Amino acid sequence: MATNQTQATTSKPRRHFLKTAAAALAAPYFVPSRVLGAGDAVPPSDRITLAGIGIGRRGTYDLGCFLDQSDIQFLAVCDVKETQRRSIKAVADLRQGNTDCVMYRNYQDVLSREDVDAVLIATGPNWHGTMAAQAARAGKDIYCEKPCTKNIDESLELAAIMQRSGVVFQAGTQRRNLPHFAFACELAASGRLGKLKRVYAHPRGMTAKMSGWLPPEDAPPIEEVDWDTYLGPAAYRPFNKKFLDGFNFEKGGGLVGGGVLEWGSHCVDLCQLAANADSTAPVKYAPPVDGEIVCTYANGVELVLREKDWLPLGSCPVRFEGEDGWIETGDSGKFVISSNELLAGRKIEEIGGYPATFHVRDFLDCVKTRSQPAANAEAACYSHIACHAANIALYLGRELDFDTETTQFLNDAEANRLRSEAIRAPWRM
Amino acid sequence: MTHRILLLTLLSSFLSFSSPIAFADTPPLPDEATLLDLLNSDAEKSEKAIACKQLAVVGSAAAAGALAELLEDPELASWSRIALAAIPGDEVDSVLIEALQKELEPRTKIGIANTLGKRKCRAAVEVLTATLEADNETLAESAAVSLGHIGGPAALVALQSTLNDAKSATVSSGAAEGLILIAEAQLRSGENDSAAAIYDSVGQADVPKPRVIESLRGSMLARGSDGVPLLIEQLKSNDWKRQGIALMTARELSGEGALASLMTAVDQVDGLKQALLVTAIAERDDPAAASMLVAKAKAGSKTVRVAAIEGLARIGKADSFPALLALAASDDSVIVATSLQTLASMNDDQLNRVIADQLDAATGNEKVVLLQVAAARRIDAVDSVKQAASSSDAAVRKAALKALGQIATMKEIPELISRVIEKQGQDGDAAMDALRATSIRMPDRDAVAEMLIGAADRASASDKQALLGIMTEMGGDKALAAMRDAAKSNDRELQDLATKFLGSWMTVDAGPVLMEIAKDNDHPFRIRALRGYLRIARQFLMNRGSRVRMAKQALAVADRDAEKRLILDVVERYPDKRMLEITLQIAKTPSMREDAIQVATKLVRILGGAPDTLQQFAKLWPQQSDLQIVSANYGADEMQKDVTQELATLKRIGPAVVIAKSYNATFGDPAPGIKKQLQVSYTVNGQSFETVFEEGQAVLLVPNQP
Fold first, then answer.
1. pLDDT at A320
2. For the residues of B209-257, what is the DSSP string, one character each?
């Protein structure tokens, strides 16, 4: 008797046993004391204790997802901006029904607290990698907003530090755990679209420029804005309040600006997952032609960063094309698919959509089991490498060949020099 | 070359922070000589900083001296080091080593020490070793870590000495980190024994706990299978950090016999710890662990059993199937649910054949499980499942019909229709569900639709409704044509049903059919059809032109305010210049005028103030009003500019002020690089209003702003 393609897939099922047990059992079977607690009513002593570092707009959203979980306790907020410290404390205290959230300006005071199990890092992108490294050295599990690194070398170093420290690291690329994106990636990764040919990501703006120095302005008092710490690992420049918009500041270290890293750390990351490439990156990067950067994996699959021709499916769209079918999806939660057969009897509406709490839940479960979450350090490392390499090709305006074993560009000294950038002392990765 | 010329050259390549330049405009980097001239000039620090970044890409040994001089400037040291870190060669190493021995700011020296480590500069071992004694703890710590990056016997000796005799926790932590880096390098090159000795020495030293945890991981990894006792010791402890590193290392541990040792050791812990270890072993993704998981799944603590069954989803193959089948057919609901989930997701195509082969002979609960798994895995076992659908066992029949919904092909659709229409068997609802699930899976929707249409002719009223529902879910030309015929039939009941289904159609091709009905003044459900048509215009993906056409066509047949309100919703959701005309039309209905003006104002504000748009907008105010501008301010935060005069003198079209160029070009830019607002106080026929416009919006000074 012949067999159909199975619904089982080539990608490894994630660890569900906490969830399965918690959902299926009347009493939670996996409740230890301290951090292994789970369930609807977890006593404070059994919750994962969390602190937030650099909690601005994005961090506030992340924090909301954490505060929705019954098994966390938010102990402290650290921010270089006083207004932000106060605002986050107010939110946390209100949600937790107490006044326990402690405010810090100096992140080292938070990291040295032995009663903090995990940290949410949502500083400006300039700080993400360095702060994650510091937190790992302090033994904290880490949920870190993206982009997580500023260059290729930092990406590799971050992954190595996480492994060495034995901490759980989840990049804030929540789409990996959003059902419709995960479904799309699974279709591609499992071969149900046929042999994969092309994966598409939307960079939403292609510029690669060097970060700069603006005219000096009078700096506010340190308690109001700690400028030196805000600059952190970025090279020195005098205070200018335009820099206080962390979203655009030093996100790419040597090269900043544009969406190849900013959005690529989401949509290129999804393409990596779809292409079963969590432990590698494309080997060839071409500069843009007609709004498209084409990168090629060693197996011939193309990663195309393109600006146009997207279906109106919301921001951060991705498209995966195989020999037998294709799927395109975006932040709307909807997707368009080449054949309903691929839905295996389900409806599109049954599959997709936000909220991003799934990603936070995945992280917290892994804190308990010590498993690797969906956006673990290695996966984040290589998706960031793909973005950085594409940005370097964009900046240099020439095709680059990349050796994924040595993580060096072939025959291009200038490109290799852009692989890393020294950070300001006293900080180090 | 003068400083100014240099600056111009640099500016052509420095892409400024505030004005992004597209890739195509990126000029080539300046050459090294130009950049060095700038470093040696009296240029501003900001310019020298950017020159350093560019030298990082194009600089050579020739730049080492000039860059080293900048290390003495605390504001430029970090920029200088960006270049020094990137430029290869002994010359750069030499200037860095020399600088580390100078009287510089501690921060600068920390940076230099870090850079020497990153460069893996062997020549720096001596100076870094001396730096371990620095008064500044962070500097000594950085030197220690850099020695770890560089490695080699001398670095090892220096770090071991510091570890045992560190003057602060910071320095001992740095020494430990350096040693761990050296041990890691040894591990990579297969020197496991010496790596283990280093890890052990760190673990036994008085260092911060994270270093102890890191060293424990290394001590286990370096010993391979012999590291398992240490791993179990950590797992048995009451310290979560030690338990945690044991569990993580259990996933990483490599070398001959490592898996076997771990499996043997599983029973040395119990309860939750055993469950977590079982999960960790499963996550090694080695099928050789499957037999252990099967054994654990069968008996013992339920916590461990669940973890083992979950683990089989990752590594289980067909030979785990008999045990899982028995578990899935057992009495314990948790074990059953977990086993079914595992059977559904195991990645082994051989398993499909095993399941298919067992289907015919199985009975009772076991048969139900096999059918559930066949459905979940979509195994091509149609004949066996069809046979089971006629079983005398109701539970088997139900499971079989459900499975058919997942695996039946076009060939089985007539049989499923017969079961539905002729009530074959006693499972009408289950058969209808199977028919639905099968139909919507089929790629040839039209062929399925033909079969369903044929069936509908001979079906009961309730079955007919269900069949039309299936066609609605499927979509496709034939199904739509059938629905149109039903909607246009003379059978009121059928008209009612068909227009309801058309109203929930999932593709835009239902639009013309709905419009056809909406235009039919005699159709009893024309209003429903129009609303269904507007649902498509509001919610579905289509190009702008199509949506404008739909809105216009809807307006032509809309005679009630409620539907006109829905048309305004379309306009609001999809701002487009062509939609403005539609809004003006709706505004002609007196009861809709206020709503239409609100929407038109919102629309034009978003679209901006092109003169032809403003001309159209002004048609909403045919009578002249007395409009006076009281005050106007343009800016952001405290950076405001009074633009009352400028605004008052601009040309107006009705209530709209014509801003021919940008806000900045018209009013000047009081806050460069920041998004600004225009705040206007004005009176219309003596009544006062105040409105804020975002930069770039059309300035519409109307009485009631949206």
1. 98
2. HHHHHHHHHHHHHHHGGGGHHHHHHHHHSS-HHHHHHHHHHHHH--STT
Q: What tokens does B43 get? A: 């240029």
Q: Answer whether A12 sits within 8 Å of B381, measured CB to CB.
A: no
Q: Does A222 touch chain B if contact means CB atoms closer than 8 Å? A: no
Tell me whether residues A421 and B85 touch, CB distance under 8 A.
yes
| Closest-CA distance of chain B to residue A153, Å | 10
What is the chain B residue with the closest CA to A32? B272
**What is the interface size between A and B, counted as CB pairs within 8 Å?**
252
DSSP B494-511: HHHHHHHHHHT-SSTTHH
User: Please, which residues bridge with residue B43 across strands?
Assistant: none
Q: Which amino acid is at A32?
A: P
pLDDT in tens, B615-631: 989 988 877 788 999 99
Cβ pair B449, B471 in contact under 8 A: yes
The mean pLDDT value of chain A amounts to 87
Segment 361-380 of chain A within 8 Å of chain B by CB: 369-372
| Cβ–Cβ < 8 Å for B140, B110 | no
Q: Which residues have CB under 8 Å from A231's CB, separation 6+?
A: A126, A237, A424
Residue keyed to tokens 């496709």: B476
Q: H-helix or E-strand containing B207?
A: none
| Average pLDDT over every residue of A82-90 | 94
Beta strands in A290-399 (DSSP E): 292-296, 302-306, 318-322, 326-329, 335-337
Q: Using CA atoms, how far apart are residues A240 and A223, in angstroms rounded to an integer?
A: 17
Nearest-angstrom CA–CA distance, A359 and B8: 49
Say yes or no for a CB contact (<8 Å) between B78 and A165: no
State how far the Cα of A316 lies from the Cα of A203, in Å rounded to an integer: 8
Record: contact B381-A1, CB cut-off 8 A = yes
Chain B within 8 Å of A87 (Cβ-Cβ)?
no
pLDDT tens-digit profile of B235-249? 999 898 999 999 999
What is B510-573 written as a DSSP string?
HHHHHHHHHH-TT-TTHHHHHHHHHHHHHHS---HHHHHHHHHHHHHH--SHHHHHHHHHHHHH
Rounded Cα gap, residues B432 and B416, in angstroms: 8
- Residue A38, pLDDT above cutoff 90: no
Q: Which of A1, A5, A345 lies nearest to residue B437, judging by beta carbons?
A: A345
- Beta carbons within 10 angstroms of residue B299's beta carbon: 8
Of B110, B306, B356, the CB nearest to A425: B110
Rg (CA), chain A: 22
Residue B611: HSE in the Cβ half-sphere, 13 Å Cα cutoff: 5
Residue B312 C-alpha from the chain's centroid: 29
pLDDT tens readout for residues B4-24: 444 434 433 333 333 333 334
| Optimal mutation site among B57, B442, B676, interface A, most CBs of chain A within 10 A | B57
| Cβ contact, residue pair B673, A414, below 8 Å | no
Distance from CA of A353 to the nearest CA of B (A): 17
Q: For residues A336-345, give the mean pLDDT.
A: 82
CA-to-CA separations, B37 to A421, B7, B51, in angstroms, rounded: 23, 10, 10
**A8 and chain B in contact, CB less than 8 A:** yes
> Across the interface, which of B307, B381, B440 has its CB nearest the CB of A17?
B307
Closest residue in A to B180 (Cα) is: A164
User: Among positive and negative, which fits the CA dihedral B239, B242, B248, B253?
Assistant: negative
ipTM: 0.91
User: Token digits for B433?
Assistant: 């569900």
**pLDDT single digits (tens) B118-148:** 999 999 999 999 999 999 999 999 999 999 9
Contacts of A425 in chain B (CB under 8 A): 77-78, 107-111, 114, 142
